[in-house]
Structures are given as C-alpha cells and as structure tokens.
Amino acid sequence: MHSFHYQNASLHCEDVDLATLADAHGTPAYVYSANTIRDHYRRLDQALGDIDHGIEYAVKANSNLSVLKLLVEEGSGFDIVSGGELRRVIEAGGDAGKCTFAGVGKTREEIEYALREQIYCFNAESEEEVAFINTVAGEMGVKAPVAFRVNPNVDAKTHKYISTGKSENKFGVDFEVIEDAYARAAALPNITLRGLQMHIGSQLTSLQPFIEAVEKVAPLANKLKESYGIEFFSIGGGVGIVYDPALESGKPEWWSGQEEEHKPLTIEQYAAGVVPVLKKTGLKILVEPGRYIVGNAGVMLTRCLYEKKGSAKTFRIVDAGMNDLIRPALYEGHHDIVPLKEPGAETGVTAVDVVGPVCETGDFFCQNRELPNFAPGEAIALLSAGAYGFVMASNYNSRGLPVEILVDGSEAKVIRPRQTMDDILASEKAAL
Ligand SMILES: *Cc1c(COP(=O)(O)O)cnc(C)c1O
C-alpha cells in the first residue's frame, strides 16, 4: 500500500499535487512519500512482533540521507554494502552499532573504517574475506564480529539478474561447506563469530522460496549457536512489491478484492510463514528489506517532449532516460505509467513506446503498452520508482542527476537538488 492517488483529477503524493511539484522543480524528478515509508517499516516490525528481531534497511535501495533519517527515527538498523553507505548512515544520525556490512568485495579501507566505527557485524561472503578481516583486525588490535552468508541453493523464481541464492551465483558460501568454514574461522584469533546470514534474491512474490530457504537453514543456525554461540540469524531481504497494477495496489480495497490464489505476498503472510520456523532457533532474527520499504513509496515524474509517429510504432519521447531510471533496461523492470492529469471517459488509449532521449535502443520505459493519451508538454509519473531508481542514476550522455523531493503530509521538501552542469564539470575543469 502507498499514498499515491488521484484527487481532484490530479495525481497526489499524500496531500501534495504532483503537477505542482513538476512545475516548481522541473522534470525528471523523484518524489517519495514519507508516510508510506514509515507505514511499511511499522507493518513489518509489527508482523514480526513476537520474536526478538531487528530490521536492517538495505541502504542500497534508496540511500538519500533524508530517507535514511526517517528510518533512523523509526529505530531501524541498516544493511550496507560499502564504506560509502556506512558514511551515509552515520551522516543521517544512524548507529553504526546497528549496521551489518554485506558484499563480496570489501576493501581494506572499508574494513578498517567499519572496525573503527564498531559496526554490529560483517556479513562475509567467503573464507578468503574472513581471513583478510582477521588480518586487518589484528593490525588494529581489535576483534572483528563476523557472520557468514550461506548460499542455501534454492530457486527464488525471480529475474536471473536479481536471483542470488543459487550455487551458480557469486554470493555466499555453499551450504555444503559452511560448517567447515565456521570451524576454520573459529580458530582465527581476531574474529568473533556473531551470526549467520542469507539472502536468496530480490522481488520475490511468493512465500514458498522463503519458507524453503528458512527451513533448510534454520537447523544450521541452531547448530552454530550450540557450537560457537552465535546470536543472530539474518534471513535477508527480497520481499517483492506490486509493480502492476501499481496505482490500484495503493488501496486496501484492492488487496481485499484479489482472489486468494492470485493475491501477491503480503508482509503479514511473509512474517506468519517464516516466524514459526525462526522462533525455534531462539536466535535474534534480522531482516534486510530494501524494495519493500521504499519501492512503492516513490515515483519518477517526467514530461512528454514529442510524439513521434513511425511507420511501425508511436513513440512518446519524454525528458527522463535510462540514466535516470535504469530498471527497464537492466532487468526488464516494469513501471506503470500514469498521466498526472487523471484520464477521463473521453481520454483515448494508444499503444505506445515511452522512450527517453539517451542514445541507446535500450532507453525505453515501456514498449507497445496501451496507455491513456497524453500530449507533449504533459507530465506523467513512472510508479514504484522508490527503490533502485535514483541510486542507479548516472551522468551518461552528460545528463544531470534528477532532483529528489520528500513529501510528508502537505509538506514537500527538496532533499537533493537537481545536479547542474557546473556540478558535473567542476572537477574536470580543475584538471584542465
Ligand atoms: C540488496 C540486498 C538486500 C535488499 O534486497 P531487497 O530485494 O531490496 O529487499 C538485502 N540484503 C542483501 C545482502 C542485499 O544485497
């Protein structure tokens, strides 16, 4: 559920008219709903209610400082994948002691920084990495808290680029050798074994892969608790969101109207499914949601520049490109597209390709999709753009990064101004 809806025939985020924001701040623009983010966090927290648990928001999904600050205020911990993300958490007022550090390629500088800041745990992805963390910690005269990421070899049934829990993926340590890895790590002088972690993939829309993974790994967590006194078991993130239909799924009525077998996974079902298995471990349970918290809490606004009628197709060319939102090009991601002005009964529908200005054939937001007509000059919204949207934006084609705006009730605040050409050029000009 989320707080984007039509009101007085105009698309709103909470109480703010998005057309007003597009006029005032220009396009492309990312707009996030603070109350949607809070609501998602609280619903997950409540759903996990009766077990000892912690939420480690996956910073990589949306790392704007103001978004992180919102989650700091909710009491969230953070799952980070770089020293840069740790810096962001600290700048946002977050507690390094509630951070877990994931990723297959941690550098010496990042490990030293994380040890200095006393993070909660390194989630290590190989024995080689643990050996290196041991060396660095030894040089600093400290003990490093470590968990291994286990690769449970289950099929998450999601897009191949966001599936991470199969043996052929680069992530984690194979289930078959994980106990030996713990035994060897336990012998290292500067390592404290603190937990066990897994993360099988992203945008999972059914419960079954989660259950399969948790049932397979929970007994291992138990064993490791007995042998090494580990204190937590992190089950990762990956809970999917509704990309289609995104707008309708904002309302509770949509969810109650879905037939049981077609109903997308809710956070309550997710918790109800995994909690009974996890309870038996007696460990502190961590979850690392990214997309679930912020995905449907953001949209990207863009304006139509031209309509181009080719012999085979109609193109609507907009002022946002794949450099601003790469999900469709990178992993065939779907974003619903709606005009800011609510389509009426008289609005026609045309099958169109919505494309950006970037010089790549992959620079499209949809192909042959039936959309309500909108004309050059009109602004539209790409929904469900709060996760893996702005964070993946680049300066390709020398295009500045879009503005980011956070809406809270009737307030709208620019939380990152649009990047100017002067910003982009400064360091290069200095080198001329
Ligand atoms: C990306 C990532 C997450 C978050 O995934 P979502 O699908 O956005 O919930 C959690 N844990 C790890 C280790 C990750 O790499």
From TrEMBL:
Pfam families: Orn_Arg_deC_N (PF02784), Orn_DAP_Arg_deC (PF00278). The lineage of its organism: Bacteria, Pseudomonadati, Verrucomicrobiota, Verrucomicrobiia, Verrucomicrobiales. Homodimer. It comes from Oceaniferula flava. PANTHER family: DIAMINOPIMELATE DECARBOXYLASE, GROUP IV DECARBOXYLASE. Pathway: Amino-acid biosynthesis; L-lysine biosynthesis via DAP pathway; L-lysine from DL-2,6-diaminopimelate: step 1/1. This is Diaminopimelate decarboxylase. It catalyses: meso-2,6-diaminopimelate + H(+) = L-lysine + CO2. Keywords: Amino-acid biosynthesis, Decarboxylase, Lyase, Lysine biosynthesis, Pyridoxal phosphate.
